[in-house]
Structure formats: C-alpha cells, structure tokens
Write the structure tokens for this entry.
Amino acid sequence: MKKPQQDLGRVATELTGEFGFEVKGFTLGLLGLIFCMSGLSALIYQVAWQRILVLHSGVGMYSIAMVVAAFLSGLGIGSYWGGVLSKKCSQLAALRAFAFLELGVGAFALFSPYLFYDLLYQQYPYLFSNLWSAGVVHFLLLLFPTIMMGMSLPFMTRGAVFDTAIASKTIGFLYGINVLGAALGALLTPWVFIRLFGIDGAINIGSASNILAGVIALIVGSYVVPIAQVHQGFKKDNAYPTRIASEASHTFGLWLMLYTLSGFVAISLEIVWFRLIDVAVKSSAFTFGTVLSIFLLGLGIGSLAGGSLALRIRQPLKMFLVFQCSLLIYTGLAVSLLVFFPPDWPVYHKLITYWLDAEGTPLGPDAFRTHFRRIVGLYIGLPAFLYGIPTLLMGLCFGILQRAVQDDPRSSGFKVGLLQAGNIVGNVLGSLVAGLLLINVLGTAASLKFLLAVGLLFVVLGIMFYGSRGVFSLAGGVLILLLFAMPNGSQLWHRLHGLTDMNALIKEDAIGVVAISPKEDEAYRLTINGKSHSYLPYGGISALNGASPALIHPSPKEIATIGLGTGTTAWAAGCRAVTTNITVYEIAAMEKVLIDQMASEQSSPKLAKLHDFLADSRVNIIFADGRNALALDDKQYDLIEVDVLRPWSAYSGNLYSLEFYTLLASKLKPGGLVRSWALGERNLQAFRSVFPYFIELKPGRILGWSFDATALIGSNDPIPLEVEQWLARLAAPHVQKYLGEEITQQMSSMLKTAQGPSPSPNPTVKPNRDLFPRNEFRTPSHL
C-alpha cells in the first residue's frame, strides 16, 4: 500500500509537469500562488501604512522619503538575515519558516491600525515633533514586519530550488510571480480596497492574504515531501548551455556590487518617472497605485521571462551590463521624444491640449464612462512608453543574476538574500539621494542626466571585461550623446505644461513642480504638478473666501490659513485693521519663490496687491504640512481658513476628515471661526459633526458659476447672522481701500447669501474619516 506522502509527491510531480517546470521539488504552481498572495499583501501594506504614517510627520516629500527608507531598510535587513538563516535549513524547514513569517506579518498587520493610528498618532503625537525623531520611530515601528517580509524570498528560494542547472528559472518564476502579486496589490488597493473598505479594511484584507498564504505553506511544508525523494523517474534536462570559463571566474562580490548599483539606478529612475507622470496626468488619489502597478507589471514579466532566458545565456555578466546600459539609453530617448516630438501631430496634439488644461481628468470609476480612451492613454499608454521596456529589462537582469551566482541548492536562499539586501541598500540610497538631494538641487531633467552618467560605470566595466570594440563603446557613445542632447529642465516642464512659448516661471523641488504661466489680459495662473491652484491678479473665489470670515468675526486678530498659492486667500483674510498676525502654512516652498520672482520682474498695476501682500509685516509663512504643524503647535486662532483643494486629489482626505475638523476646533479661541468648503455631502457631514454652529455662503452665485459652490463657516460658539454688521465692516474705508472696488462689490453680494445650515439631502451618508477618506477615493454613497 502506498504511503500518503508518496501519493502527494506523485500528484505534485504531475502538477509540476502541467505548469511546464521540470523541477524535482514542490510544485511551483502552488508555491507561486502562495508567493503571489504574499506580494499582494506587501503592496497593500506599503500604500496603507504610508498613508497612516504621514499623519504623524506630514505629507511632505521628506516625511514620505523617510517612511519609504524605513520600509526598505527593514526589507534589506530581513533579506540579509533570511539568507543567512536559510542556509541552515532543509527544503521543508525553509517552507515552514516561510509559513511562520507570513503568519507573523499577517498578525502584526491586524494590530497595526490600532498601533499606528489609535495609540501613537492620537495618544503620543510628541514622538513625531521633528522629522528625525519621527524617522527613528517609523523605522522601529516598521522593523518587525518588514524584516519578516524581507526574509520571505530567501526562505522560499531555499524551499523551492534543488537543481542549480535551472535555479534561475525557478527563482525567476518565484520572484516574478511575487512582483505580479505586488502589482495587483498596488492596483487594487486604491481602486477597490480603500475605496470600499477604508484604509484599515485594506490592511485587514492584506492580513487575511498573508495568513492564508502562511497556512497553505505550513500544510505544504508539513505534509508534502520533496519529489526528489519519492519520484526518481523524472527526466533531467541537460540541454541548457553552460557558462563559458571566463564568466565562471566573476566573483559573488562583483555581482553584489553590480546589483547594489542597479538598485540605486532603478529606484532613482522610478522617482524621476513618477515625477514626470505626476505632472503629465495631473494625478489624483488613484494615480500612484495605478502607475506603480504598471512599473511592477514590467518588472514581474521581465523576471518571469528572465529566469528562462538566462538558461540560454553563456555570458551572464555581458548581458547584465548590456541590459543596464540599454534601459538607461531607452529612458533618455523616451524623455527626449516626449519633449521634442512635433506638437502638431494628431495624437500628440491631444496630449499637449490636455497638459495645457490645468484641471485634468478626475480619475475614478465614473470617469471611465466619459473619458475611457484618455484615461487608458494617460495611465497605461504613457507609463508603458516611458518605462515599460526599462522595467522589463530590470526584470530580465534578475534572472541573469541568478544564472551567474547559483551553484548549490543549499546556498540558494543565502545568495538570493544577500543580493536582495545589496539591491535594497541601493534602493534606500537612491530614494534618499535622488528623492531629497538630486531633485532639490539639480531638478528632474538634470537628475536624469546624472543617472545616465552613472550608467557609464556599466560601460566602463563592459570595456574592462570584453574590450573596447563592440557594444559597450557604442553604448557609451550613445549615453554621452544623450547627456548633451536631452532637454533641460525648462524645456521639459514647459512641454509637460502644454506651453509652446518659453514664457512661464517654473521651479521645482522634492515637493513638486510649481509654475506661473501667462494667460490673456495680463492674468497669470499658478499650478502645482500641472494642476491649477491660484491666479493673479488677486480676486475671484479665493479673495471672497479669504475676506468673508474676517468680516464676520468681530475682531480677528490671529489668523491662520492652510495653503499659500499666489497669496490671495491670506491677503484677503488680512483686510481688517484689527488683524495683527497672519500665519500661512504651505507645503510647496517654490510657490513663495515664484511669487517673489513674479513681483520682482513685473510692475503692472494689476499686481499691486501682490506687492502689498509680500511687504505685509503681519504675514508669517511657514513651509510645512499645515495639518501636522497645527497639531504640534499649542497656539490658538480667531480664524482658521482652509484653502481650496480638489476633493479627489491625493491626500485631500487629510483636510476633509472629521478628525481634521476636530483638530481645527481645538485650535480656536472663544468665538473663533473655521472656513472650509462643502465639497460633497461627506465633507458636509464631517463639518456638521464637529461644529455645532455654522453658516453657509454662496460665492459661486456671485461669480456666475454653473454650480452652486458653498463655503462653510463653523464655530464652537453661536454665530449671529448679523449681515448688516458685516456689511458695515466691509464699508469701512480701510477695508474698501484694501480690497478694491470690484472685490468689495462682490463681497457685499456674497455676504447677503449667508444662511443657516441647509437640511442634509442624505442624513445617513457617512462622513470622511482619516482611515476612510470616502470623497478622495470616490466611495459609493451607501458605504
């Protein structure tokens, strides 16, 4: 009678054959499914945890870079120790270790929303009082789960690899399927998980995926024995060519150095690509996950193909260096074409028109019905053009790397772990150097040129090992040519703003790209990352919103505004002589640089109010995340104004949540006012839930807008509806001189629209919350 384990071994062998892998180990199909689930969970956590952790330290690029660096550091440490420990394991023990790692990550994830948000964010905010202390705390918070995540690939590799002849194919499949799972996680997290279940709900889904993967792996590692032990009739394929002798002499240390350098280049390119995409598509809450999934898709497909391709390569080092040079050359050519392509070509002309329109297309489920072709072109076509081929080549390099270094099944996990640790070290350095230093100092275009120059190191190595006559000299020549031929920063950003005349003021830093471009009749538009934020000269909705609560409050001495733009809101808020201090919180420092430059270069009478604002001694501009800065400051205000932010913008939920309004209410002096927007019923419900007293104003009616924009002014204390007194304050000579005739007339009409709270059309609708930003992610109204 056959033993159960022999039957399982036979079944596993048959399944292995069905999946097309000639492997005397566990069925790769089953292991691939487990590892795909692990990758899906990892990206859910990366997106969701980052969303929570930036509440601690702010949404600024420095804060996000520190969170990403902390996440990657744990992965790197885990990869190293996973490699070291896997060397001591049998195949079955390695799979069982992998199972416990998955269970550990899943268990931590279940607890993480309480730990990150309820406990640390709400109870111990002083731990995040500065960027460095926040970075240390975030590193310690993420260390446990990310070390376990990093250890998973080495243990999975040790559990699956038994034959070094096809190790690259096995490892390439496992890594590729894991990355494809990550791509799926990146896509589903904003579109499905957060949208329908909130951030904590998305984390719970990731936890369930980890735990299920762990349970399956535990069963496999406990009850299935290696097929090599029970099935000896499996045919071994020796058809793959062996490496030539000179290739075998390359040390593991050389490969470790190369993979570390390629990690630096890869993450740096990712930062550059995402900056370009952010401006080109005018991003929303769905953008990051969508374009990241395209990046991971190319990487995953390349890894799957690379494992098999590598078996046929006799010179792995040469091909690795060729692919690294090629992906940099392609990137330089793609960006150059994007900028220098004739603007009147039919398809490209549509892109130019879209870039010129500073509003963009709000991404969400409903948008597909009206803008399907545009969305596909922007979110699939453009990313695929920019980095589809480079990410495919990155994936191919992974398989080639394994082909070069794997020579013993017992050390397979060890070598994978060390190589991944080195690659992640490069990732961490790249994220900090490119994201915080190069972009800030050089700008995106020059940073890309710097990376092409780094690519010359691959050329030098190629010439050292393979001579100067051949592909590497050609690659070096093309890279050098691109260094001189590629567009500069001004050319790049003028094109991605749809501007054919080089007449805009443009500055960028790690936060984003800020531009002031001319419009008709001596008017100017300020954009951030391609999206309109404010206008010059002063007036319009920003001036009305800024001045109205200052006229309603009896004596607004201390005022705070979140958002600078061109300064219109903060300027209008200071229209009363009684005001002594105006604190402006702005995350994009380049806004102030540009309006200073605008004032120094333009002397038009239409910009006189801009000059007055910049010279106003009452104004104090603080460059920080406004929510975070208010939370860490004990100061209270008579008036707090939240400048306009599109409700579908990334991280806009942080400024339209019930918890944010609760924070604002705690920063008010007695009788103090908060001014925000009724942008959707969910935001209105959040505002209603916090402020027991509020009134509504209708600036949209005054400006002749097609929709009825509503400004909300709330307080902890009753707000008397005393329109006559408000109009009397508006009629004061100082106020009329300050605002000017046109704005004064519009303000008079707007104040007359004041009314008490309108009945809620849908009182059962749930408000925006920090952990469930419903407006931002277009959550269906019944959820």
Notes: The CA atoms of residues 449 and 484 lie 9 Å apart. Residues 1-26, 225-238 have pLDDT under 50 and may be disordered. The radius of gyration is 29 Å.
